[in-house]
Amino acid sequence: MRHAETTAGAMEHSLPMKAGRRGELWRRLRRNKWLYVMILPGLLYFLIFKYAPMYGLVISFQDFKPYKGIADSPWVGFKHFERLFTEPDFLQILGNTLILFGMNLLFFFPVPIILALLLNEVRVSVFKRTVQTLIYIPHFMSWVIIASISYVMLTMDGGIVNELIAYFGFQKVNFLLSPEWFRPMYILQVIWREAGWGTIIYMAAIASVDVEQYEAARMDGAARFRQIWHITLPAIRGVIVVLLILKIGDVLELGFEHVYLLLNSMNRRVAEIIDTYVYTAGLRQQQFSYSAAIGFFKSFIGLLLVMLANRLARKMGEDGVY
Amino acid sequence: MRKSRAAFALGLALASVPALAACSGDGGKETAGPETGASAGTAPSETASAAPEKEEAAKITIMLPLNIAETPPDTVEKEIERLTNTELTYQFFPADTYEEKLNASFATGSLPQVTYLKNQATFLIMKDAIREGQFWEIGPYLGEFANLSKLKPAILDNTKVDGKLYSLYVGRPLARQGMIYRKDWADKLGLKAPETVDELFEMAKRFTEDDPDGNGKPDTIGLADRNDLIYGAFKTIASWFATPNNWGEKDGKLLPEFMFPEYEATMDFMKKLRDGGYMNQDFAATSKTDQTNLFTSGKAGIYIGSMQDVNSLQKDLVKNVPDAVVDTHALIKGPSGQATTWSIPGYNNVVLFPKSAIKDEAELKKVLAFFDKLMTSEVATTMFWGVEGVHYEKVDGKAKELDDKERIEREVKGFKDSLIGEPETNGQLEAYHTLEARIHAEELIVENEKIAIHDPTAALDSPTYTSEGLQLQELIKDATYKYMYGNIDNAGFQAMVDDWAKRGGSKIIEEFNAARAK
Asked: If you average pLDDT over residues B92-106, what whole number do you get?
């Protein structure tokens, strides 16, 4: 240790003037070396799993053949992007993706916030904890299970929902096959599975609100609802905005598995999204380059939306994510 | 280090950039080891040693997909090694991600001497690489091996690429499909096994309307079908209507099945079944599990698909309905009065021999000699049934599985799926069945073969089909379901067929016809 410091000191002296700033940097690095060591795994993770694979994007400009590798596969320019943009169903698929995303934002995003606010008002802690646990549980179920449960409940061949509808004398509804029911079904399933899990972060944010503020508000005669509106919500605004931006970043991550399980020949018109299209048109036939091109395009849209959302957040006086 | 390199390659392959493994910088390798190891830990690939040794004559490395969760122990492997005088290294990889593993190994040039593909679809995709000369052409050598020459020429033809043979095939019965139905219901209603499609319709109708389970409630249906036009009921019924198998000939030209009137007749048949309530209403969204449940719960009386499913269906059905009796049936006549059915190309998977691992002709012959020995009765039986007295016993000269099914699954299944040829050619013992309906099914499978309609494009190639065929097929699948559900009529269906043709279908027609003319 001693030795290392002396050599470093010597180096500093041997590089006068010009190295002044570099010396400063070196000193700081050395002083906080354990902190840097600690972020190393995280950095490596991002370099190896997030940045290095980006190199693979070049295959979207090639006719990639696995046995030839990137080096020897022929370059084809924008061929795959042209195929994507001239695909007759392209606009419909993009539209479906954006509509599902919009519905996600509109109907799903507020639910955990409302749930967290409601739970926060519950005073009996046993009840509160029980409810919390119960609404987390669906998060741990796979989409396959959720889709199967839905099928069993909604099928026209003896599903409980349709039996009830028929019992009350109405016409049975073809939930599973009709294009009109696909989106509501999708959103309800997302809410059922993820809403409880989503409350965790809001509950934490709410817990950190200064209690004195509530006391002061009560003194001023603010009722429960007023307290939520003027204290709790503004206090967690930052968290909401950050989560919103992150959510928008996932714009096109609507869950391939989930949608694919609900997709069938009868509702494809509204249910085919970019992810399922990549699967049928690209991956299933090992069209690596075409799949990569679609993925590229998708990420590009995601990036645009995040930048947009971030700018909006800054305009509204929040910090944003960068 | 070798291990972490393999893991690193796999990790990247999973990140859907398989080629990176080939060009990955050396820098990341050491540090990346532990982390990537964790992410790739699900694949039991670590038994794999990368480059096989080639000096020793009888050393053979084999890469193959595994359809069960655990890598099998070497019980069967040891026995095969003893019988064939070889030293084998089996590299099992999970079937779910087998294609990725194939591509990653391909990219890194580390395919072993014997490389199994996963199914017909992977074979189709691999044809490109075969044409580029990545694999040994084995056709000229087959004649030198007495047992390999027994492989069926018709099926070998189906696996040829541009008229040349590069692979050995894993055989499957040509025509296993038929119907499995509730014999007790039929007897009660005085119905006999249907001989024509009209009688089949009648059966479905009466199973629905005449309360075959006798509980006084209208809670039964005829047919249980699922969201699969091929392995569900549709294609089999279509073949009874004498619809061509995928492609057929009209005025000397190859055309897809859905351009034939028989296809439409089948759609009308299914539409009538559904409209009448004689089948499950949600079949376009029904999974195989849900379909089977309809049958095994005693709600539906007819299942159309592989007749070999009868064992598992019967087993689950009697749990719910103890006195249920099932039977199998096939050879059903269409409107023309002729019984017809369809057949698969006769193989399930193929084996390829990479040039990167097999350096010369002499080595290739050694590997082929191993496969030649595999096709002798004793070795084939070991591979398919396991070790006598441990996994199976001989009854009347047939193989009867012993009771520990889990052990058989664990120790034998992995090898069973890789046996080339079929019982007639490799001499493996036939199965000893006790279930009456299954014995009947096996007889029907033999009869089916005689009346099977073959796919004329099985050995033909169309580049457009390879790259866009599946996606285009979705259009037809959607149109077919929409027609059966009454969402579109004849004209609507034609419009979607035209759309198919416009988007690339007509190119596929041209290419297949050109390929046949060659």
From this structure: 87
Which of B381, B408, B426 terminates a domain? The answer is: B426
Pick from A49, A67, A280: CB nearest B134? A67
B320 and B259, same structural domain?
Answer: yes
- Tens-place pLDDT, residues B257-291: 999 999 999 999 999 999 999 999 999 999 999 99
Residue A68 has pLDDT above 80, yes or no: no
Q: In terms of residue numbers, what domain contains B492?
A: 177-343+455-517
What is the mean predicted confidence (pLDDT) over A73-77?
88
Residues of B in contact with A287 (CB under 8 A): 467
pLDDT of residue B129: 86
- d(C-alpha B166, C-alpha B183), whole Å: 46
Q: Share the mean pLDDT of chain B.
A: 86
The whole-number pLDDT of residue A285 equals 75
What are the chain B neighbours of A58 within 8 Å (beta carbons)? none
CB contact under 8 A, B129 and A67: yes
Question: B93 vs A150, B44, B70, B77, CA distance in Å?
Answer: 33, 7, 10, 16
What region, left, alpha or beta, does residue A114 occupy, with left being phi > 0 and alpha being psi -120 to 50 degrees?
Answer: alpha
User: Are residue B285 and residue B376 in the same domain, yes or no?
Assistant: no
Residues B251 and B185 in one domain: yes
**In whole angstroms, what is the distance from residue B451 CA to residue B334 CA?**
13
Residue B356 CB partners (closer than 8 Å, separation 6+): B109, B110, B111, B134
Query: Which residues of chain A from 58 to 87 reach within 8 Å of chain B, CB to CB?
Result: 59, 64-67, 69-71, 73
Per the listing, tokens 């199967």 go with A148
Q: Is A284 on the interface with B (CB under 8 A)?
A: yes
CA distance B507 to B503: 9
Q: Which CATH number fits domain A79-315: 1.10.260.40, 1.10.3720.10, 1.10.10.10, 4.10.640.10?
A: 1.10.3720.10
CB B165 within 8 A of CB B422: no
Nearest CB to A176 within list B24, B103, B282: B282
How many domains are contained in chain B?
Answer: 3
> Is residue B184 domain-shared with residue B328, that is, in the same domain?
yes
Hey, where are the domains in chain A?
Answer: 2-68, 79-315
Give yes or no for residue A168 having a pLDDT over 80. Answer: yes
Q: Which of residues 191-250 of A touch B (CB under 8 A)?
A: none
Q: Is the ipTM of this complex over 0.95?
A: no
Q: Which amino acid is at A215?
A: E
Do residues B242 and B303 share a domain? yes
Over 60: is that where the pLDDT of B22 sits?
no
User: Is B400 contained in some domain?
Assistant: yes
* Chain A residues closer than 8 Å to B282 by CB: 151, 155-157, 174, 176-177
Please, which residues have CB within 8 angstroms of residue A299's CB and are 6 or more apart in sequence?
Answer: none
The pLDDT tens digits for A269-313 are 999 999 899 888 877 777 888 989 998 998 888 888 888 888 888
- Which of A76, A148, A266, A284 should be substituted to probe chain B, the one whose Cβ sees the most B Cβ atoms within 10 Å? A266
Q: Is A322 part of the contact surface with chain B (CB cutoff 8 Å)?
A: no
Q: What's the CATH code of the domain at B71?
A: 3.40.190.10
Residues B329 and B472 in one domain: yes
- Is it the case that residue B48 has pLDDT exceeding 90? no
Q: Does the residue B437 lie in any domain?
A: no
Are B231 and B336 found together in one domain? yes
